[in-house]
Amino acid sequence: MADRYSFQSPFSRGASSNPWFMAGPVAVTTTAFVVGLSLLGLLLFVVEGGIGALGGALLLDERALTRGQLWRLATHIIPLPGVFGGLLSMIFFYMIGSQFEGQLGRRAYTALIVVLTIVPALFGAITALATNQVVIAAGLGMMFFGMAAAFAAANVQARSFFGIPFWGLIAFFFVLQVLSMLAQRDIVGLVMLLTTSAIGLIVTRSLGFSNVEWIPSVRLPSFFTEGPQDRPVSTGRTKTKSKKKKKSASHLQAVPTATASEAEIDALLDQVSDRGIDSLTKQQKQTLERHSKEMRKRRDG
């Protein structure tokens, strides 16, 4: 799947997955919602002249968690560490997140974002309590590393600026961040960084979007893969295109369990690209998995 990827502008029609709903002309996707929360954090930062009382009540605070303020596990992405850094995080998160949400499908992508928000925060708080350090992570920066790692694993052929492989660019910044945290003896931040990156890689591999063999694959919780399929929200597109998709989806239901033809594989990949992995049946997912194994065998000789 990775070699079929080509980068699009996040503002193009095909860049994002189907929105959850339309707010007037605005397509509210999970990525747009998260960036909206960051814009709220920017507003708070400006109004309070930094991280004030309200922003501080949203930060990840290990001592406050022990007093029952569990909302901090989710709200720590709202306060910003600074205006310039916060804006950069929002821009890059939106650029990459819009692409990745379209690939994974809104349900799996939303589950990934929730896990990337809460689990590293929980690990960080536990580490802070154990080492008597303070959690200093805030904003989208930490989550971005996990999402970017997942995107790079799913699109190993994707290129960034000046033709540099995207995975190489992310690996470079990851190493810089690790070295910076080691120099500052920020053990809590290092634990959170490693956790969020590992989650992004493992989830992407486990959903079948990455063929990078050194990444482990695990059985994911049901909220990643079960539930209603992503249904497109009307955005004024022509009826002709809608009928074409229905016809294609109807044809895909008949994919046999035997070795699939190249045309059938292409049709499945197109369906995943259009509507996400959740739109495939169990049988179709097995067909893709067999095809992936056959490709690896031919490549390895």
How would you describe this structure to a colleague?
By secondary structure, the protein is an all-alpha fold. It has 2 domains: 2-223, Rhomboid-like (Rhomboid-like fold, Up-down Bundle); 241-300, no CATH class. Helix content is 61%, strand content 2%. The chain contains 13 helices and 2 strands. It has helices at residues 30-48, 53-56, 62-66, 72-75, 83-104, 106-131, 141-154, 166-183, 187-206, 222-225, 239-252, 262-275, 282-300, and strands spanning 21-23, 26-28. A hairpin with a 2-residue loop joins strand 1 and strand 2. Helix 5 runs parallel beside helix 7 (141-154). The longest helix has 26 residues, at 106-131. The two termini are 20 Å apart.
List the domain count as a whole number. 2
Strand order of the largest sheet: 1-2
Query: Please, what is the CATH homologous superfamily of the largest domain?
Result: Rhomboid-like
H and E string: EEHHHHHHHHHHHHH
Give the number of helices.
Answer: 13
CATH class of the largest domain: Mainly Alpha
Report the end-to-end length measured between terminal Cα atoms: 20 Å
CATH topology of the largest domain: Rhomboid-like fold
Radius of gyration, whole Å: 20 Å
Number of strands: 2
Q: Helix amount, in percent?
A: 55-70%
Derived from helix and strand composition plus strand pairing, the structural class reads: mainly alpha
The unreliable regions are: 1-15, 227-258
The main sheet comes to: 2 strands, antiparallel
Indicate the CATH architecture of the largest domain.
Up-down Bundle
Whole-number mean pLDDT: 80
- Strand content is under 5%
Shape: globular
